[in-house]
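Work Package 3 (structural annotation) set out to generate three-dimensional models for the target panel prioritized at the project kickoff. During this period the team completed the workflow that converts sequence records into discrete structure tokens, so that structures can be stored uniformly alongside our sequence database. As a representative example, we reproduce one entry of 193 residues exactly as it appears in the project archive.
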Amino acid sequence: MRTVKGPRRTARQAILDAAAGALADSPNESMAVIAEAAGVGRATLYRHFPSREALLSELSLEAIRLMDEATVPILENASSAEEAFRRMLEAWLPFGDRFHFLATIPVSDLGPDVAVESQRQLDDLAAFVDHAKGEGLFARNVSTAWIVATIDALIWTAWSSVHRGELALRDAAPMVFRTLVEGLRRDDASETS
């Protein structure tokens, strides 16, 4: 009798995993290539996702859920905004393939559920930024909207750099943290007289 070790991936999850990888490499990848990468036939792919839009919408919602699942325990257990922010970056940056392709697609094209969840996630981040301002992590005189947009842009930049092999994943979170919190000022040790 054969023993199956660990949970078995469903065809639906295999499609989502393959789509994330394929779309990270080529945002316009065809459904046929995604089906082949998932190891399923096109009929199976279309049974689970009747259109490209349905696949992109589900992939987006899954990415949002993964981010939420990673973030909630950090916010519940961190002793400071700085600790929470460092840990959130460390948790978020490995999701690069799940989110990278989204930067090329307007959220409005992914359906109303994605738009609502995406906005909720940005609102949650804004609430965190406001809290972090109160602890002095971010300057109070910089708008919350600007800080949220900068966090979003730097995370995307880090994902892109990791994907292109320009930055090691282990270095991505510290680099984003430094850029956001410390800025790009010159190191004192490297200054010359």
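The longest helix spans residues 52-77.
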